[in-house]
Amino acid sequence: MTETVEAPTTVKPINHWIAGSPYAGRSGRSGPVFNPATGRQTGEVDFASAEEVDRAVQAAKAAFPAWRALSLAKRAELLFAVRELVHERREEIAKLLTAEHGKVLSDAMGEVTRGLEVIEFCCGIPHLLKGGMSEQASTGVDVYSIRQPLGVVAGITPFNFPAMVPMWMWAPALACGNTFVLKPSEKDPSASVYTAQLLKEAGVPDGVFNVVHGDKVAVDAVLEHPDIAAVSFVGSTPIARYVYETATARGKRCQALGGAKNHMVVLPDADIDMAADAAVSAAYGSAGERCMAISLVVAVGDVADPLIDAIRARIPNVKVGDGMDPASEMGPLVTREHRDKVASYLEDGGGTVLVDGRESCPDEGFFLAPSLIDGLQPGMRAYDDEIFGPVLGVTRVATYDEAVRLVNENPYGNGTAIFTRDGGVARRFQFEAQAGMVGVNVPIPVPVAYYSFGGWKASLFGDRHIYGPEGIDFYTRTKVVTSRWPDPATSKVDLGFPQTR
Ligand code: NAD
What we know:
Distance between the termini: 69 Å
Shape: globular
Bound molecules: nicotinamide-adenine-dinucleotide
Low-confidence stretches: 1-5
């Protein structure tokens, strides 16, 4: 990408997408969408009422019988077409992300690429849905298992990955034969509507994929709807807990991924430059608005001072600016409110502020430059909270055991990483760390598409991680068939409980 793209200046209406067409909301409720780089409103998104959510669910329900009956070969063919189209339009999608989320274009392209990997995984759906078969389980009796879709399923997604996280959900859900209702974040909703257009263009039948925008009213309508069989949620921990408890109380299958506080442990033998590069990239990339961002460095022993020096030396080189400018490496935060909340940790979050990002950021827009706080401890606000912004904390400990204890005592368990040259200690860390994803000299260990993504503890409610093999499990239920083809020679009346013979 070589040229700077102008952000839109007019306020565009952003509608729902129901049964293959845009649907202008009639609830009388809507919300503003901003360009975070300028602070100006660029869109007004419809907020769905319960009736509008029902309209989307009915469209998905009507589309389900034909979609689930489509052969695996045809479904795979459609997924390949979707893959081609998303790949072809990845820059258009990325520009929508930058315009509403604020992340820099290169990062937005990375987001689309990681989502594409999940779509590519789903192109192998004929293989992924294979069941097991036991011939002659009993005399003349064969037993086999099959996987069937659940029906209408819903996804509720956060602002920070407006294209990728929905792809984590709709790609496997559709591949498994379900139809889908997406409730994306109201802060950056345009990528979801664009995705709906692409799916239609690729040949996915109307009603298979629907989008309803909105806030708690729309989410509650999804959670209450009797025709929705399962809900996937990604967002903050309090809402994840609420969604999980509400959905499961109504008999729905639910996976709800929550927030994080990812600790990066750096041992004294680590390569300081490599660890500093990793910490700066993982803390400030996407302005820290990643659930796998590193928000805390746990410096073990005498590594702390040289590591902090190396991180401080790198911070002034991070180019903060409009994400549409190819020179920018870090964009603004998503809203003014969120920016101000993140900045408040520099005021009274605890510890010693070494670099204050309020001092060196653009005036307009929702910017906060990279910030660094030393001396954080459990009990301090900046240690305990998921800040979700470009504020990196450092906690100093004396030993590896203290570092692991901090990781394991933290209520969150999304990701964690260790930086060391000692393979034995790294292996011990992998064994002991209580988190769903562990990086060894890798700061953001987001699993590739053929594994599954998910945390432990307050980072995940439910028992299935998202995408990959566990995603296929989540969006299907198994059926076991026991069959005997008529053999008159063995037929008889037998009132006893079936036994193998
Ligand atoms: P959020 O919880 O505020 O919103 C997520 C979704 O829930 C949105 O669609 C929103 O409209 C809806 N929502 C918000 N408030 C609600 C309420 N009171 N009742 C019902 N629904 C409500 O999260 P966010 O700010 O959009 O995203 C950031 C959070 O998401 C961070 O905590 C981050 O760690 C987390 N996240 C987690 C993962 C993961 O994989 N674990 C991935 C990305 C983001």
